[in-house]
Input
Amino acid sequence: MPGNIETSVLIIGGGPCGLLTALLLARAGVPCVICEQHAGISTHPKAMGITRRTAEIFRQCGLLNEMKALEFATPETQLIIWGGTLCGEEYGRAALPDPNTRLSPCRPFHSPQPHTEQVLLNALMAEPLASVLFEHRVRHLRTLPQGVELELETPGGPVMARAEWAVAADGAGSHTRKSLGVEADGPGDLGHFLNVFFHADFGAGLAGKSALLYNILREDLVEFFVSVNGRDLWLMHHFLQSDNEVPKEDDLVGIIRSAAGIPDQRVKVLSVVPWVMSPKVAARFRSDRIFFTGDAAARLSPAGGMGMNTGLQSAHNLAWKLAAVIQGRAQESLLDSYEKERRGLSVAVMRHTNDNSGEVFQQVNCALSGDISGLKSLLQRSHRREEDLRFDIGAFYGDHVRFPHAATNGNGSSTLDWFGNGFVVVAGPQAAVGAPDLPRVEVLAEFSPELGCGPDGAVLVRPDGFIAWKKVSGATDEDIRTALDAALR
Output
């Protein structure tokens, strides 16, 4: 029989959010174990878009270049195209928002979920304090006075696992959250889909029509295509228009050919995953010694690509706080701020993506009713042409604001690169701070206008890059000690 497991943090689920949580904890010096029910990481590219803020997190982890290894988008392909067929009739197109902004050193990019998970897994395997146990399914979970206990089903037999804390990153259907009686709130079932991963080289059929997203809408057909590699790998969201529709592989090949407008196109279906569009946010992000993150905390509409990004940003928020409490540097009450800072934001993002979905369904209804002229009119007013940097940069956690980006030299370095390893003081050149027992100090007079600080002001920045405290002028070491103490409560 396999040996029992003892660790500081048990993470239930080895998807992107579970992997990032473990990586951040291990690098902060906290032993942790991931228990994943599947035999390995995902092979199906469910999520692909990486926002600027998530890119900043990968940059902080030193993983950004590896994450971008499969990026193929160019300014010319930053498009959504609507049409009657993929390679034929076009109703309209819209350029996606400009990927460049002075507010971030990072651009949004394209990374299929298997690649994202592989990069995170590779980094995690290099950390001696972390381990990933595949084919370890949670059967029972209970909270102890000073920890949690899990009964696991493994290929070698049952195993007991114990830890001080647990993080549930076990997906939208989160068995953990449901077993703890934590409900999720949202608009309910908005549609059933098949997520179809397939190979097809449309070649010259897409000449002049290279894009990231294609919405194929007709009276007889509704399909949404996402380019996976910019060439011959695709993801199709097939809308199931009735409960009785159960397409087989041959049916899906026929649908793809019809949507492409090429009846004899060679198509190979690689995998099919059913899913339900049912946006919901958990009523609580914590149940005693167990935290929820990823889809277990917030399941979002895919319109806008914010689901995985919101989960990764929540994991980033939680990990440093959990590490600080476990290592005795912070009071346990600090952990209550995870829900305060992330749940309200998750609800706001859910509403934003629901608005996106509502617009898509308006377009679908026009197409299904045969009103193509009405559809084209809707496309002219599409707000998908616009950008809301509140969500793309994720710059706010409740009352906290992410430290502003500014280039620090000509080689691409950013002020954001200072953060990630503890609290940091950023002070003006005349501020009376800098005692050796305080966090590192950077003297940056030139950035004081963006911070709203004078030459003797200072800010205290958290490990996640968010400002914990600011004093416009007259900052002292005593002020910073008081602010640091407050930030760890």
Remarks:
- The radius of gyration is 24 Å.
- DSSP finds twelve helices and 26 strands in the chain.
- Residues 336-368 form the longest helix (33 residues).
- The chain has a mean pLDDT of 91.
